[in-house]
Input
Amino acid sequence: MIEVKNVTKKYGSFIAVDNISFDVKDGEIVGLLGPNGAGKSTTMNMITGFIEATEGNIIVNGYDISKKPGKAKKQIGYMPEGVPSYQELTTKEFVKYMAELKMVDRKTRKEEIENVIKQTGLEEVQNKLIKNLSRGYKQRVSMAGALVGNPDVLILDEPTVGLDPKQILEIRNLIKELGKKHTVILSSHILSEVSQICERVVIINKGKIVAIDTPENLETKTQNKNVIYVTVEDKNEKMLRIKDKVKDIQELEYIKDNEDGTKQYKIVSDEKIDLRKTLFDILPKEDITIFELKKAEVSLEDAFMKLIDDRQENTNIKQENINEKQKNTKKENKDVEEGVTSTNEEEYLENENAEKNVEAKSVRNTTEQNRISPEEDSEKTELKDNQKEIEKEKGGKE
Amino acid sequence: MWAIIKKEVKTYFLSPIGYVFIGIFLLAFSISFNLELGYSSGIIDFQNIFVYIFTYLPTILVFAFLIPMITMRSFSEERKNGTEQLLLTSPVSITKIVIAKFISALVMVLIALLFTGIFIGIICFFGTPDIPAALVTLLGFTLLCMAYVAFGIFASSLTENQIIAAMISIVTFVITWVLPEFIASGSNFSLINMFYKFTTGQIDIAYTLTYLAFTVLCLILTITVMQRRKSAR
Output
């Protein structure tokens, strides 16, 4: 059980963490989420007693971290950001040292160390110097350091940063497994990770708590409309008239033509009404064949962006623009992956960097140009401008 | 606390620092020994030669430069590598951490001093040294080193840059060393001058207490710095 009560951290006049309060129940996995510099690490450092809060109290398993630091710290296993460890020691020596620091009972120490090494999959490298280990292993060594002594509370600062996908999966499973017996707080800026592992999410931005909820609730909370994408073959052009027949449709919008002659539409209704069943019933009667029908899901990512953006009105417009653009590109990519020929997809996959993306955009644009009416989507016009510029450049070169 | 001492001493020997430290000290000591032999021009004062070696400038000077070499890393390195997060979030209190760091650096000094036993052995072989005087000298030297080490640890807690930590210590040592040359009352502040009293074979209680007080003061300052940094970090 961790209680964070009205905690503030100031550096001079700069407020890094502003009056935050939350608690973590026993055996719960809570994710701290936020953009870089939001105050995640500062919060974690305060919980572990590494830094002192300017105001407020932090109570770990009943012990106030500033009044009874020794007892409170005994409850905590901490894996700091950047996984610091003693490079000149071997894995086993390091884990042993951490066990000794945590005053693990001498009788059970050896067994405990072996268990932790096994649990984190470090058996192979237990006699290697930490400085010679790869990043993934270093991460695990740090994890082992946090785990040793079987503390009730685990605090993991960005536990999966810098790992390869397989290792990420392993670490996630390990955390899930640990969450059964321990109270876990982890920070991350990978949203899918948080929604997978955590039972609750605390979203922090600019030192303030923006939201505390389960990942599912956050997703639904920020979703205020029900959106359905439907791809149909509509020979008699009846689709747009469906709106008159189904009253619950708030908005019916043409999205694009597909190469196989089908068309995609976006149907918006109130959040309480799911139109999928109605559409399945009605469309065939109108001689419209459904090729695809899917509900647009608000991901935690959208929820996060929305929550962050809501609180960020007065701040850095530039940053927001960048976010917006990234979102647009993502949308773009989804569209492309659905309808465009394989060569384009390959081209897209090759161009992973944002800079190169501009080139890719222009290629895609030429193929999509015919299918997308510019008025429809402002982002498309933006892209067109982009393309024009590129064409100009090309012309200049020639 | 024991765990930290064990690990620190081990780390000194995992890197060349431990060996270099002891090596250079013994080298300087041997040179002093040799100079003393040459100086005595045939008539060797076996009784006092061991004490004389300590009064030679190289020994003290080198030690003044060597001690920062082992103390400079104690907190600076941890801070730079981020391992202080591990140390300071462990249930060990800051006071214990500071004392452990101090003791482990002091252990290095004591190991180096143990090797000077070789010289006593050599002298014993050729003559009869004044053992009590030698021991008092060693005690005085240990006290001097304690004060140096404590100050070095304090300097190390001030910065994450090891070189700067070493420079702070060295500059301070040099100032207290040359101060008596410029100010008449300066000798009261000179740790080295106090040590010379021990080479006469007497344990000076006042100086002993001064050394101990200085050591404790430095350690308290270090603890204060570490505690204050907690709220300033």
